[in-house]
């Protein structure tokens, strides 16, 4: 086995995708503790860098913009001049394997997604999408490491759990909403969940990110006439993703949407309940009693990404009763 000294990792996507990719970073740091690890990621996921101390450097390539070919050139020159002896890329586009081959990096690892990728990669790995996405990423380094997969782990200190606490994070990214990708229930339903949890004696905390202001405003309005003795509005008090990760770590239970906070819940080993609509929970949550998908198993789900690129108008997959959600959380 080679002892690599300078490793380039390439993983595009949102913050959730970077957290799912964490076992690759963890695995390589464990196998090659003296190696320098550099991550190439999208600028929109820069906040992820606050959640790990395993990386030595990073650079941004925004490959999904209108300037994608210029960004590909940036990736090429960064890869060419970085003196890397190993590159691991999660991208399945054949152009990336061509680009990496041209940089002269000695060991190139990626998915065997095309004939040309199989020829140009040192380790072409079978792409198995029918599993938890984090394990799919870890498959990339199985030829390089001598141990088995471990769940994502992020850099958050241990905290004493707030007794009987439920953290509610209703948000999804504004980008997904702008693309007509609806993955969560309405603000009114989130408010009803909070009311139900309070009636069950839970201490409820509400959090959200900058994209969630409209949703949070509606929830606050719905709660105006309630007894909020055991309710704490934390919106705006978590200034960044690290603050949110600490709050999730302190909470006994997290209830959220299929979004970045869900992946933080997994990476902090917090008992997590996630609302799923059109996406596939089996690919986005690990198989564990600690992490539960709440969903309406209609025949047409999951459809998003497998069958369509935007959500349908019906959204029967999100027709989940508040009582069912509250009962599962309080079981």
Describe this structure in words.
The model has no long low-confidence stretch (mean pLDDT 92). Strands 3-2-1-4-5-6 form a six-stranded parallel β-sheet, sandwiched between helices. A six-stranded parallel β-sheet has the order 9-8-7-10-11-12, sandwiched between helices. The protein contains 13 helices and twelve strands. It is elongated. 43% of the residues are buried. The chain has helices spanning 15-20, 22-31, 68-81, 94-103, 115-120, 133-138, 174-178, 187-199, 213-222, 241-250, 260-267, 281-284, 322-330; strands at 6-10, 36-41, 57-60, 86-89, 107-111, 123-125, 162-169, 203-206, 231-233, 251-257, 271-275, 291-294. The protein folds into two domains: 6-141, 3-Layer(aba) Sandwich (Rossmann fold); 162-330, Rossmann fold, CATH 3.40.50. Strand 8, helix 9 and strand 9 (231-233) form a beta-alpha-beta unit. Helix content is 34%, strand content 18%. It is α/β, with parallel strands linked by helices and 331 residues long.
SSE topology sketch:
Blueprint: E1 6-10, H1 15-20, H2 22-31, E2 36-41, E3 57-60, H3 68-81, E4 86-89, H4 94-103, E5 107-111, H5 115-120, E6 123-125, H6 133-138, E7 162-169, H7 174-178, H8 187-199, E8 203-206, H9 213-222, E9 231-233, H10 241-250, E10 251-257, H11 260-267, E11 271-275, H12 281-284, E12 291-294, H13 322-330
Parallel strand pairs: 1-2, 1-4, 2-3, 4-5, 5-6, 7-8, 7-10, 8-9, 10-11, 11-12
Helix pairs in contact: 3-4, 8-9, 8-13
């Amino acid at each position: 086995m080679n002892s690599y000294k300078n490793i380039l990792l390439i993983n595009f996507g949102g913050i959730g995708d970077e957290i799912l990719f964490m076992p690759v970073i963890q695995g390589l740091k464990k196998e090659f503790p003296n190696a320098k690890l550099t991550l190439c990621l999208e600028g929109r996921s820069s906040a992820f860098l606050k959640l790990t101390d395993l990386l030595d450097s990073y650079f941004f390539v925004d490959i999904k913009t209108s300037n994608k070919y210029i960004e590909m050139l940036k990736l090429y020159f960064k890869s060419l001049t970085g003196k890397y002896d190993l590159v691991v890329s999660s991208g399945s586009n054949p152009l990336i394997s061509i680009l990496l081959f041209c940089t002269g990096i000695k060991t190139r690892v990626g998915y065997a997604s095309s004939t040309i990728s199989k020829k140009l990669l040192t380790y072409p790995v079978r792409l198995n999408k029918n599993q938890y996405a984090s394990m799919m990423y870890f498959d990339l380094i199985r030829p390089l490491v001598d141990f088995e997969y471990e769940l994502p782990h992020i850099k958050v200190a241990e905290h004493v759990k707030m007794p009987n606490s439920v953290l509610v994070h209703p948000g999804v990214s504004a980008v997904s909403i702008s693309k007509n990708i609806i993955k969560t229930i309405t603000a009114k339903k989130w408010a009803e969940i909070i009311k139900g949890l309070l009636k069950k004696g839970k201490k409820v905390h509400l959090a959200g990110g900058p994209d969630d202001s409209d949703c949070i405003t509606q929830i606050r309005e719905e709660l105006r006439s309630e007894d909020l003795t055991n309710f704490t509005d934390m919106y705006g008090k978590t200034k960044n993703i690290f603050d949110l990760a600490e709050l999730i770590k302190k909470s006994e239970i997290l209830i959220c949407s299929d979004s970045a906070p869900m992946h933080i819940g997994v990476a902090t080993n917090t008992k997590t309940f996630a609302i799923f609509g059109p996406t596939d929970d089996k690919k986005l949550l690990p198989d564990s009693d600690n992490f539960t998908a709440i969903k309406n198993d209609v025949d047409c789900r999951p459809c998003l990404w497998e069958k369509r690129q935007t959500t349908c108008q019906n959204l029967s997959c999100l027709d989940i009763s508040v009582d069912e959600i509250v009962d599962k959380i309080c079981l």
